[in-house]
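new request in #modeling-help
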Amino acid sequence: MSYTTPEQRLEMFRQAFPKLEEGALRTLAETAEERFYTAGQNLCQQGELGTELYVLVAGEVAIYVRTDEHNEVLVNTGVPISYFGEMALLVENTPRSATIRALADSHVLTVERETFLAVADRNPVLLRRLASQLTDHLRNNDRAVINELRQKNNAVEEAYRDLATQEKMRREFVTTLSHELRTPLTSIQGYLQLMHKGVIRGDSLPVALDSITRNVEKMVAMTNNMLVLYEMQLSSPEFGELDLVDVVVEAVRRVQSTPDYAQAEISAVISPTLPRLHGDKNGLVLALHALLENAAKFSPAHTPVELRAQMGEDGGVWLDVVDKGVGIPTAEQEKIFEPFYRLEHVQKGGSTLFAGIGIGLSIAKFIVERHGGRIVLTSTPGKGSTFSIRLPK
Ligand code: ADP
């Protein structure tokens, strides 16, 4: 059954092959078959033998070339009135070099090889046009495939670079961790040996026990932080209504109950218009605690640290932790939020200036982002830093 009249078909071939003589057009129109494809259906498949040329009457098709078992690349699209599938006509017994797929419901006219060649033999212009289109198609295919390969190559190179960076970070982490563990352990071991031998006794005993306790606490805190980083990625937080004043109070209390930072001079300015928030209280305490502890750690002793809690421009909450400490070079400001990334603050003699294993900020970032917020950092080396937790309304 025919959906187009012979005249309509003739007109379509006239548009598809301008300048072709009338008799030839008539032959094509008379012998052409009509086919209909629904969106997603293949007109022909790469690798299969084909003997037809397609002229698209209505709809839209796409031409794909398979690059491997699982991937195909889009190399061209066809709209009315374009034609394709010419390779099967020009070269006998050749498999399709691409898959043609209907993108929308499509209506095509097909011409068989035999008919077409008979017409083409009498019309060299047609053969020349077809050969030229074939060359364009092949060039297009090559370009698309090469492009695809180049992108894959870039992705592989990037993956290698990532691996190398991760490997470097892993090595640095092991070095940092062993240093951070060895220092307190060596100290504990020393005190225990001296106690064992009876060298430390009487009034010296509480001092030794105090030092041992501090060192154990440090290791426990470090281990807890590592576990938090690991576990929080597996668990979902408990969100609820919360008052940020409670978060601030708890975070400050925790910093000041850590012996190393007990003397930290933290002042908190809390705006009376602070909105209530829907969030994960424990998580936010952890995040704020990490920022406050860093502010105290990376500042000289007795340098004040300021905490400002206020309503943000968007009606959310801003928690700014301002220090006048060592500051962070611009080039490092993004990287310090990555797990285990630390700046080398190495002293003469090789010991590191500040303790830590580089996960406080990653924990803080993870938690804040889980609230739909972000941490904004402004810092000047030698002058100080401001870490601002910005939580949306
Ligand atoms: P840690 O403090 O355990 O090293 P963090 O993830 O908390 O790990 O911080 C990563 C790095 O970012 C720190 O090692 C430090 O170099 C830098 N940093 C973080 N906070 C500050 C700050 N307030 N001032 C200066 N440097 C900081």
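bot summary: The pocket of adenosine-5'-diphosphate is lined by residues 290, 294-295, 298, 323, 325-328, 336, 341-343, 356-362, 385 (CB under 6 Å).
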